[in-house]
Amino acid sequence: MKLAVTVANIFIDLIHTKLIEHLFCIDCEIHTCLEVFDELNETQQGILNEYRERNLLTIHQLSEQEHSEAHKIPSQRHCH
Question: Cα dist. 15→8, 10, 20, 30, 75 in Å?
């Protein structure tokens, strides 16, 4: 399964609460885009770069067309 983090606050909150490592322990490919990554401060980026270097996080640089197409995809939310 793939998981896309599209809001910087998800990373910010997980780092702040020291739960970020749990995100990368789940059995999912974690993806985000450069725009989200750029919203983080240097310390937060450094933490995520450690996961990127271990191939646990993929950061995509989207073209304008890809960015537009991504916004058209309905999100899937599974709440139980």
Answer: 11, 9, 5, 15, 24
The overall pTM is greater than 0.90: no
pLDDT tens column, 7-20: 999 999 999 999 99
Number of domains into which the chain is organized: 1
- Structural domain for 15, as ranges: 2-72
